[in-house]
Write a structure and sequence with these properties.
- By secondary structure, the protein is mainly alpha-helical.
- Helix content is 43%, strand content 7%.
- It is built from 4 helices and 2 strands; from the N terminus they run αααβαβ.
- The protein has helices at residues 2-8, 34-43, 53-74, 87-97; strands at 77-80, 107-110.
- The protein has a two-stranded parallel ribbon with strand order 1-2.
- Strand 1 (77-80), helix 4 (87-97) and strand 2 form a beta-alpha-beta unit.
């Protein structure tokens, strides 16, 4: 970049600096700890006794359907049966397969192991 600017400085009117890559992870950070879950429930006026398996499963199913169906139709959805498979390598392979290396290149589903305390 510096070499480019030194060479073409008289022709450059301005420079924009920003991210060349964004990586989103499918985690709702607020919901990853008990206080965050309680805050979410309170904000949405959901009693703790109402946050039961049918409610949580229904919410999960709705979210997954809204994300996975369009991704499947676009051919960019993969469910990984093994949590040890590299998600980044898988996403890059899907992007390469479709000739797309920027923007939304893949949607991955995976059940992660949970260590209860």
């Amino acid at each position: 970049m510096k070499a480019f600017l030194q060479r073409f400085a008289p022709l450059v009117l301005g420079v924009l600096i920003g991210f060349d890559r964004w990586r989103f992870r499918g985690s709702k950070r607020m919901l990853c700890y008990p206080d965050g879950v309680m805050s979410f429930l309170s904000r949405h006026s959901i009693l703790l006794k109402e946050f039961n398996k049918p409610y949580a499963k229904g919410l999960t199913d709705t979210l997954c359907a809204a994300i996975e169906k369009p991704a499947e139709q676009a051919g960019i959805y993969r469910y990984l049966n093994n949590c040890k498979v590299s998600k980044e390598e898988t996403a890059l392979a899907i992007g390469k397969q479709h000739g797309k290396m920027e923007g939304l290149i893949a949607v991955l589903g995976c059940t992660e192991p949970c260590c209860g305390s």
